[in-house]
Amino acid sequence: MVMNVHQKKNLQQLLFVLVGLVLVNLLAYFYFERFDLTADQRYTLSKTSIAIAKKIDSPVYIDVYLDGEFPAEFKRLETETRQLLEEYHAHNSKIIFLFTNPLADASKSDQFVAELNNLGMAPTNINSTKNGKKSLIPVFPWAIARRGDKAVKIPLLVNNFGNSADENIDKSVQMLEFSITDALTKITLKDKKKIAILKGNGEISEKYMGDFLMNLKEYYRLGEFNLDSLKTDEAKTLENLKRFDLAIIAKPTEAFSDSEKYILDQYIMGGGKTMWLIDKVSIDLDSLHNEQQTAMAYPRDLQLDDLFFSYGVRINYGLVQDLLSTPITAQTPNGDIPIDWLYSPIIKSRDNHPINKNLNLVKLEFANPMDTLKNGIRKTVLLQSSAQSKAIGAPVTIGLNQFMEGIDEAEYDGKGNQIVGLLLEGAFTSAFKDRVKPVKSFKATDTGVKNKMIVISDGDIVNYLYVNKKPLNNTIDQWTQQVYSNKEFLLNSVNYLLDDSGLITIRSKDISLPLLNEKKVAAEYTYTQLLTVGLPLVILALFGVLLTFLRKRRFGR
Questions:
Q1: Is the dihedral of CA 407, 409, 411, 417 positive or negative?
Q2: Neighbouring C-beta atoms of residue 455, cutoff 10 Å
């Protein structure tokens, strides 16, 4: 049978299509490219994430436990997590992920859930309505990244105080890339920077900062450092300190000598990073456990004022009282009861910097107010008390029951927003410039290189596993039912001070997930249904009619 011209033409077109498909597949095999058409580029990994992913040379297995029948908002988080992990896998096939529902097998679910709880991955209970019946179902918004015998937890849910479920899901999606890349960094990190934990001036016990130090070890090498370990050789002490990239000074209680301050000052002038956790008022909850249940809070002179003044900050001899605070536990014959305790402010994140972005409340204890000074150093407020707070001077008598007789909230209006945490960036000027130097054994530097430091006016910020000197149950405060973000804030602070890879900048990535206006949807429900369901059907019908008309017109001749 001889083909006519029309059949030959169709066969040629088919061959061209087949050859084209083969060529496209060959090109796709050798050349990789993905296209992100979202306005906020939510599925485009940052250069930092891609670089870290491509460095992985052995399989990393990521087990995700966010799987199952969820309400819409959690299903959205599951979908976003899956799509982002697909992006990581596309850049490096050694990143392998698997979604698992811990409750899928009823016979093993109890054991599975117990294992996850033991690993610190507690479920989030959410309301569910099925067949008209309401119930609480546990959701596990967690993942674990494993490489060899090393494992790292990945939190997938941001559960911030005062936010709606949709707002928290929105923030969770924003944090997904940071959480996953952070875990990949921990699990693959080889060359670690060094941090000095200063000792010798009555710093806080390791018992109260142990968890913070254990988490730091996942990123950095830690070492204790005593400034007076070589009293007769200050130059050697400074040389040894310069081997560390960061010095953490956590709640010192004994004054610093001029030589100790000078060593720290010159360390800063040379580019050494510092994080100061300082209490300028001496008061502790233990001191209230007496017959009168009162104690005197008095100024603690650490002899550091001249250093901070030169760097552009002043920590005042006072205490912050905040109506947004965590209660204190009072013992009664009927058991523990909560009473107001305004000296334990809980700070809501300002969300103005990668360090505090998308954090929940940060809990403080006997914090001091701070002022900033003009000196050319860029200052960013990281922690600030609420609008309904005020500062009181010291010395002052503190009583365990002083807020039980009532609080006049008018006293706190217009006195709030006390600064309690600052980031300082720039070229610092030595506090010993134009002064007689206390140490002559090394050359003085009066103007430093560009540098960064963080000053927090509460040494107990590292004591986040204890409230009122009692350990938290599964990190949850029984009175506020909050998991405080002290650890995340402190780790972010250290990462920012030492970060060369750009990991911390991923926290600044903004992803917009527009939320529906529920009132508007309810008011325009019929119109919305017609627009979203009816209109597409009408368009499809018109297209079918038009296509039928054109086919009849073409082939009916």
A1: positive
A2: 25
